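Lab notebook: predicted structure, single chain.

Context: the supervisor wants predicted structures on file for every construct in the current expression panel, including those that have not yet been purified. This is the next one on the list. No modifications to the sequence; it matches the entry in the shared construct table.
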Amino acid sequence: AELLKEHRETLPKDDANRVEWTFRLAEAYLAVGDEDKAVSEYQALLRHPLRSNPFRLSALGKLGEHYEKKEDWRSALQVYQDLAQSATQRDWVDAAKARAAALREKIAGEAPPAPERGPSAPSPKPSPQKPAPSPAGAPGGPAGAPEQKEGTQRL
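Prediction complete. Output recorded below exactly as produced.
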């Protein structure tokens, strides 16, 4: 991982290769079990100017999954919204929008109940929640996007 980091630092900050090296560095950290460093590298790509770079988009998908695993719904929602706005492949956009919608429902469901307005206040009806595909697992992701290789760890 350190060699990847050293090489990445030689690349210009707006270089597409730097995005790929950052993604691969995050994957290397995951492979050795250092999830904190992997997440830090994925987060660095949130601010990268090459918004539709396939490696950046893949990092956003993994970051969204990480936040969901940690039950940080608002952070996951922000990441999926960014992914939906930045992706150019329709399946990635659709999957990110579906995850964002599911998270908005989850967040709304966790809000404290509104005070009743008297005896005529309707009782809230639960909305059915459908699982949505994860953008990181969207079939046929962006052209040139890194595929999930057998043996690599997912967040």
